Structure to design on (147 residues):
């Protein structure tokens, strides 16, 4: 027999779901802003000297590191929220209900959705590689400085 869910547990459960939805959206936003930063760095490379190109590469690497840290933080937070949801499933839903509704038998791990998080990190990594390539390969246009 399962316990009756109190109002507090219902609020925690809804909060966990809402937070997971929010964090998934944040992961997209983090990726999009990273891509914008890379595009800006590549555009700035057009008239950059070698020292400035080095700075652009460093800024791009820092942007990648920050975005990767943010992505991993959001993924870890979702893991904790899913653990709370799993506890609620085990406590307040019968075995039949868990089977019928396909609720987790145990809390999912960090890589619960590997294609999603892996895809975002791969997109970010690819964009970083292209950005660094463009920065390094863009010739310094001396004529644009002289005019």
């Amino acid at each position: 027999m399962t316990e009756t869910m109190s109002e507090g547990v219902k609020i925690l459960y809804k909060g966990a779901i809402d937070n997971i939805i929010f964090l998934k959206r944040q992961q997209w936003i983090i990726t999009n802003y990273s891509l914008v930063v890379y595009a800006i760095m590549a555009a700035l490379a057009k008239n950059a000297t070698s020292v400035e190109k080095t700075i652009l590469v460093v800024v791009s690497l820092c942007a990648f590191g920050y975005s990767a840290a943010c992505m991993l933080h959001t993924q870890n937070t979702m893991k904790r929220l899913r653990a709370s949801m799993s506890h609620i499933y085990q406590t307040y839903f019968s075995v039949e209900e868990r089977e019928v509704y396909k609720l987790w038998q145990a809390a999912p791990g960090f890589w619960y959705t590997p294609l999603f998080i892996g895809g975002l990190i791969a997109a970010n990594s690819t964009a970083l590689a292209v950005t660094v390539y463009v920065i390094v390969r863009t010739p310094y246009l001396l004529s644009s400085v002289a005019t």
Observations:
- DSSP finds five helices and no strands in the chain.
- Residues 7-140 form one domain.
- The radius of gyration is 23 Å.
- The mean pLDDT is 91.
